[in-house]
Amino acid sequence: MSQNFDLILKNGTVHTPGGAEQTDVGVRGGKVVAIGSSLGDAGDVIDCTGLDVLPGCIDSQVHFREPGLEHKEDLESGSRAAVLGGITAVFEMPNTNPNTDSAERVHDKLARAHHRMWCDHAFYVGATADNAEALKELERIPGTAGVKIFMGASTGSLLVDDDAALSRVLASGTRRVAIHAEDEARMNARKDLRVEGDPSSHPVWRDDESAMIATKRIIGLARRARRRIHILHVTTPAELEYIAGHKDIATCEVTPQHLTLAAEDAYPRLGTYAQMNPPIRSAAHREGLWHWLNQGVPDVLGSDHAPHTVEEKAKAYPASPSGMPGVQTLVPLLLNHVAEGRLSLRRFIELTSSGPQRVFGLVGKGRIALGYDADFTVVDLKKRWTVGSDWLASRCNWSPFEDMELTGKAVGTIVRGNRVMWEDALANEAVGEAVRFEATEFA
């Protein structure tokens, strides 16, 4: 029966839980309300002939630096980069200035973001030794992605590194806790291994064992506390092999940069622009990550978008800050891996849509299905193009992937039925709203 819709996506290859099919999708009130042919009329009709319509891609780890560090990035500029790259929702991290570690600061971020961010969004609460007992209430605030623990020092001042404090954090609340797993004691003991002016010494200092010790510690503590955890930006094959034996309690993330860059090339070519925590490691590490990714161990992809200015990154190592932008390049980098045969499109969808939905308990996101939010990442799998500086939207205005030739690009980003980006052009206004979670909707 013919109906009227707000939006119809016509003639695309639509990726639903049942597989890929050339069909149409009808949207009304921000939701998917019909999938099929001859749907009827709509206020907006998008011809997707030759394009693939994916569930909206979700980047579950970004640092947008607001408040306090807006010279690097802010919520508007970071989310603009996100939608230009095909991302429909982001989870933003708490190491801002001040840290996002109280109800007041969570609500401040939510207020700053509403209809100012281009994509939907959620904010992590930062764990500290001082707020451990309050976390069980803070994690229930609508719009929060949960709790984040830094076991090793990175950008900012958030750090919980001893077992007693970690146990208190894990005992306070029930949601899955996100973990930056590097062992602070080992890294402090190895600081002399940093070589002045040589960023290639970064992975020597923050070595494999720093990561593995922390991963084993936090899984042991989580098991004793009976608390689910999510280990971020895993960089070593050994960690993924270990996590594979603890999937009942631990999920994990890998990043596009660790799947794409290798130390042997990255540090000579990029210098401190390749510096991040945990580090870019060897080509052998990279191939090991791919092995375990195709064994199904990583649950999600996150960009760990962590911008710093050119002036900051130009400082001599180790005075240079760790982190690189990545939210805008997550989708195209992985589509290029699809084009080159390292990754299936189905697995890409798992890592960027259905995986985040499953791991974090999202409401109405992660798949193209009736009743779900009309979030779509529309991609041209065959488009060949070069990452240019004029395309980059992050305030830091650089990317380690600039001048890289890629196959595959997001041509459209649709958030709850709103066409926020099409062919690199933004809509007239931002529509981003807080992501909904089962843990906060039905608490």
UniProtKB/TrEMBL annotation:
<dbReference type="GO" id="GO:0004151">
    <property type="term" value="F:dihydroorotase activity"/>
</dbReference>
<dbReference type="InterPro" id="IPR002195">
    <property type="entry name" value="Dihydroorotase_CS"/>
</dbReference>
<dbReference type="InterPro" id="IPR006680">
    <property type="entry name" value="Amidohydro-rel"/>
</dbReference>
<protein>
    <submittedName>
        <fullName>Dihydroorotase</fullName>
        <ecNumber>3.5.2.3</ecNumber>
    </submittedName>
</protein>
<dbReference type="InterPro" id="IPR032466">
    <property type="entry name" value="Metal_Hydrolase"/>
</dbReference>
<keyword id="KW-0378">Hydrolase</keyword>
<dbReference type="InterPro" id="IPR050138">
    <property type="entry name" value="DHOase/Allantoinase_Hydrolase"/>
</dbReference>
<dbReference type="Pfam" id="PF01979">
    <property type="entry name" value="Amidohydro_1"/>
</dbReference>
<comment type="function">
    <text>Catalyzes the reversible cyclization of carbamoyl aspartate to dihydroorotate.</text>
</comment>
<dbReference type="InterPro" id="IPR011059">
    <property type="entry name" value="Metal-dep_hydrolase_composite"/>
</dbReference>
<keyword id="KW-0479">Metal-binding</keyword>
<comment type="similarity">
    <text>Belongs to the metallo-dependent hydrolases superfamily. DHOase family. Class I DHOase subfamily.</text>
</comment>
<feature type="domain" description="Amidohydrolase-related">
    <location>
        <begin position="53"/>
        <end position="420"/>
    </location>
</feature>
